[in-house]
Amino acid sequence: MFDDRSPIYRQIADKIKTDVLNGVLAGDEQVMSTNQYAAFYRINPATAAKAFQQLVDEGVLYKKRGIGMFVSPAARDLLREQRRKRFFTDVVDPMVAEAHAIGIPVTEIIERIGGHAREERA
Amino acid sequence: MSLQVEVSDLRLTYGETVALDGVGFTLTGGKIYGLLGRNGSGKTSLLSVLGAFRRPGAGSVRIGGRPVFENAAVTRQTCLIREAGEASAIGTVNDALYFAEALRSTWDAAYAERLLDAFQIPRRKNVAALSLGKRSALGVVLGLASRAPVTMFDESYLGMDAPSRYAFYEELLADFMAHPRTVIMSTHLIEEVSSLFEEILIIDRGRLVLHEQSEALRGRGVSVTGPEEEVGRFVAGLTVLGDKRLGRTRSAMVYGELGEERRGKALAAGLELGPIAIQDLFVHLTARKTPDAGPGERS
Amino acid sequence: MNGLAAIFPRRLLAANLYFTLIVYAIFVVVVMGVAVAIGVFGDLETSVWERAVQAARWYVLVIGITVVRLYLPVYVAHGRTRREFAGQAAVFMLLFAPAVSALTALGYLLEGLVYRLGGWPHQIADRHLFGGPGQVPLVLAEYWAQYLVWVSAGALLGAAFYRLSTGGVLLIPVAAVPVILVHSATDLIQVLPIIGRLPTPDLPGTTGTTGMAITAAIGGCALVFALTWAFIRDMPIRNLG
Predict the structure, then answer these.
(1) How far apart are CA B243 and CA B250, in angstroms?
(2) Which ipTM did the prediction report?
(3) Which of A110, B28, B287, C120 could bridge across to C115 with cysteines, CB 3.0–4.6 Å?
(4) CATH architecture of B221-275
(5) Tens-digit pLDDT profile for residues A45-95
(6) Where is the HTH gntR-type domain positioned along the sequence (chain A) (predicted)?
(7) Cβ–Cβ < 8 Å for A51, A57
């Protein structure tokens, strides 16, 4: 479930975003209500509501009055774009730093990635 | 409508023992509050005053703007549940419900029946003969079915096994969502229940240590780990709750949010930053040997 | 929730009278059984009920204790004030005493039937307000007066022990005063001869000691209720464990 080490609403938002990225939640699909979410994960409904509000603010979800929350049609592209931007700072840069610390030259990494690229083309 | 709970400068003593020493806070109501504290910290004393079980020694306790003690208009709307809801000696489970129904104007008998089934409490058995877990569960039934606008549970999970505890949390949430009210739960099983709370109050040695949104609290603690001197330099001027050392490595628990700039500095200095769980924060905030006074937050 | 409905302790009465009736039924059967056994195997010359029913005052005392000890916390836990509880408990006791005295009188009548069937003389052995078990109004008056002071003494002791723990023993002599006064008027005149000589209101159709018993019961009960209220009015509900 959720841990107590970071705000639960952020963990919920991340979970929903991952579901959108993976296609588990499609565009214009309805998501669970705040109360359903709270009951399912045994969390305070205000916490669930906060997560949903954040996702609405970010354009991942939209609200239909009196019906519920839905995934924005553009949500997946939006999230992919964000993650793409973060990919280099979150994944590549730490990898290079780690390689540097343990003495792997960058050329060797490039070589390795080149191998993956050839596989992808094949 | 939710009732505001205002406590100011509350003191309570038992003979020579000071149980509450100037406690003050305001709860806006309509939320689930967690009251955390070690054994003997004053949780029960505080709830006893809120529930009109005891007269405040000094200071004031108001619910909905009115004093609580011996005030029928207020006590009608409050319900404090300790083990078995004080019904341990009056007879069977049915007897306990018989009086609850008569005395509580907001009593929901059908809901009580459903809860008795959910917790598998035998109706014809003597309350005193029930196991501690079942007595606690009966207390939960009396508290939930009271539908009191301010319902307080004082460690109401004692002796309950894990499935019963989870059933309690689920019933509490479901009922809270269907019939919003103010719920105050005292506990030291923090990890298990903290996700239920919207706000958390921590008391220690009769004093309020902290009153905070639980979500804010979850991002509030940071552990800083690295070489001793680097950590020492980094945490200078910050509130350090605790320290661990392993050889020349030091891990300091810092209370308070670090800005982006500080985080960047930490990374540049080769320090590792990690989150701290509410449970750990609680342990450190209420540790017996605190050199500095802690964050000392009041609201 | 105003007026009689607010103060009438319907469930307190129902719960306690239900339990009392069960105890009473068993008690009557046992006592009558003993009486018949004595009549058949020995000499039965006086009322057995007269002796056996002395246990009832202790039962009434215990009910008085439990009313405070068990029900005050329940009332407070269910959102009632101590004042509301005290009102209901007082009405309960004022009704419980005559109810048990009626059961006591009924016991004499039932016993009278048994004695008649067995051909035994149905008469009393001790000193009472009444001269014989058939004088129902005087039987009722005597036991009502006794039970009223016993049940209120129970309430005072229940409150005192709940509040002071073992320190409650200090209140035993206080609670005993009205009890001794009433019994002096009803059956202990030999022990406290002065009571018999005190000028007392002569109620129509009663003796001087009946008036004394009634006066002592009402006065003693009022005094004990007032003392009990002093303990209850800001009584802390005890912490558990």
Answers:
(1) 7
(2) 0.89
(3) C120
(4) 2-Layer Sandwich (3.30)
(5) 999 999 999 999 999 999 998 888 999 999 999 999 888 888 888 888 888
(6) 6-74
(7) no
